[in-house]
Amino acid sequence: MTTRDVVFPAGRQALYERNRYSPAVRSNGLLFVSGQVGSRPDGSPEPDLKAQVRLAFENLNAVLKAADCTFDDVVDVTVFIVNPEERFETIWEVVPEYWGEAPFPNITCVGVTWLYGFQFEIKVIAKLPTS
Predict the structure, then answer these.
(1) Residue 102 and residue 75 in contact, taking contact as beta carbons nearer than 8 Å
(2) What is the pTM (predicted TM-score) of this model?
(3) Which residues form a coiled coil (predicted)?
C-alpha cells in the first residue's frame, strides 16, 4: 500500500485529526489541497462574508506554503458558494487580492446549499516546484 505524502500547515493538525482528513497530499508532481474555509482559530465560521473569504485564502496559502508552493503554482481551482446568486459579486470583490496576475488558473464554481456553516470554500491543485 502506498503511503500518502501529506502536507500539514503549522498549528492546524488537531483540526485535521479531529475531522479525519489531510489538508493536502503530494502525488506525481502535484499538490491536491482539501477545501479551505474561512474558519476562526476555534474552527467557527467568520460571520462577515468578505472576511470569511480572506480567511479561506489565508488558510489555503498556509497549506501551499507548507508544501513550498504559492498561489502562482495553482493550476486548478474549485470554489463552493452557498447561494451564489446572492454572494458571488461580494466574493469576487475579494478574490483579486489573492489571485495574482494572468495567466490565471482554471476554475469551476459550484453552488451548494450547505457548507457546515460557511458560505465559501476553495480547493485547489497546484504544480509542485521542481528541485
Answers:
(1) no
(2) 0.92
(3) none
Region label for 122, one of left (φ > 0), alpha (ψ between -120 and 50) or beta (otherwise) = beta
Residue 98, amino acid: Y
Domain boundaries, the chain: 5-127
Contact assessment for residue 27 and residue 67, using Cβ atoms and an 8 Å cutoff? no
C-alpha cell at 18: 479531529
Residue 19 Cα distances to 16, 28, 40, 74, angstroms: 5, 26, 16, 25
Distance set, CA 82 to CA 3, 38, 51, 95, 118 (Å): 34, 13, 16, 16, 8
- The CATH number that domain 5-127 falls under is 3.30.1330.40
Asked if 42 and 12 count as a contact pair (C-beta separation under 8 A), the reply is no
d(CA 21, CA 13): 10
Under-50 pLDDT residues of the chain? none
Please tell me the distance from the alpha carbon of residue 84 to that of residue 100, in angstroms, as a whole number: 23
